[in-house]
From TrEMBL:
It comes from the Eukaryota. InterPro entries: ARL15, P-loop_NTPase, Small_GTPase_ARF/SAR. GTP binds at residues 30-37, 76, 133-136. Coiled coil: none annotated. It comes from Equus asinus. PANTHER family: ADP-RIBOSYLATION FACTOR-LIKE PROTEIN 15 (PTHR46693:SF1). Mg(2+) binds at residues 37, 54. Keywords: GTP-binding, Magnesium, Metal-binding, Nucleotide-binding. This is ADP-ribosylation factor-like protein 15. Belongs to the small GTPase superfamily. Arf family. The keyword Membrane does not apply. It holds the Pfam family Arf.
Length: 195
């Protein structure tokens, strides 16, 4: 009789509509030219060829197997960065894209921006996915170099952050980085429920 029960149970369980995927609101920041728009377009399976630099902000709903990420991408130009924090409200996670092959000056700017985001009252408790983009360029710094240069260890201690190498050529790795971020978002959700 047990076998039959299990069969009924399976029929009951699997008949219903698939469970709704959770949606998370994320903010995506990084300097102009770090590749934010191209990476997000590619994740949405749009062609990155006709990508124009984001001047204000744009929102993309990026579907993954186990979640939908509503990503608000903020333009990275000097004159826009000072307004970033106006758009942080309601974010559940942060994607920070940096160009691993950029000049020392740009890296320093990126480091300052990342540090202020990590310390911002609306973001400091959120999971961060930090993408070291343009790994396919000869001048790209390794993830270890980026980690050291950005002083992530002391600064982000106790925070949830993931630093991953990425490039447009390697979509598998990029999707994997996002899966890790979704895991952090889910953990944070469960914690909120427990409290």
């Amino acid at each position: 009789g047990q076998k039959r029960c299990r069969k009924c149970f399976r029929a009951l369980c699997c008949k219903g509509p698939p469970p709704a995927r959770p949606e998370y609101d994320l903010v995506c920041i990084g300097l102009t030219g770090s590749g934010k728009t191209s990476l997000l377009s590619k994740l949405c399976s749009e062609s990155p060829d006709n990508v124009v630099s984001t001047t204000g902000f744009s929102i993309k709903a990026v579907p993954f197997q186990n979640a939908i990420l509503n990503i608000k991408e903020l333009g990275g130009a000097d004159n826009i960065r000072k307004y970033w924090s106006r758009y942080y409200q309601g974010s559940q996670g942060v994607i920070f894209v940096l160009d691993s092959a950029s000049s020392e000056d740009d890296l320093e700017t990126a480091r300052n921006e990342l540090h202020s985001a990590l310390q911002h009252p609306q973001l400091c408790t959120l999971p961060f996915l930090i993408l070291a983009n343009h790994q396919d360029k000869p001048a790209a710094r390794s993830v270890q170099e980026v980690k050291k240069y950005f002083e992530l260890e002391p600064l982000a201690r106790g925070k949830r952050w993931i630093l991953q190498p990425c490039s447009l050529d390697d979509m598998e790795a990029l999707k994997d980085s996002f899966s890790q971020l979704i895991n952090l978002l889910e953990e944070k959700d469960h914690e909120a429920v427990r409290m």
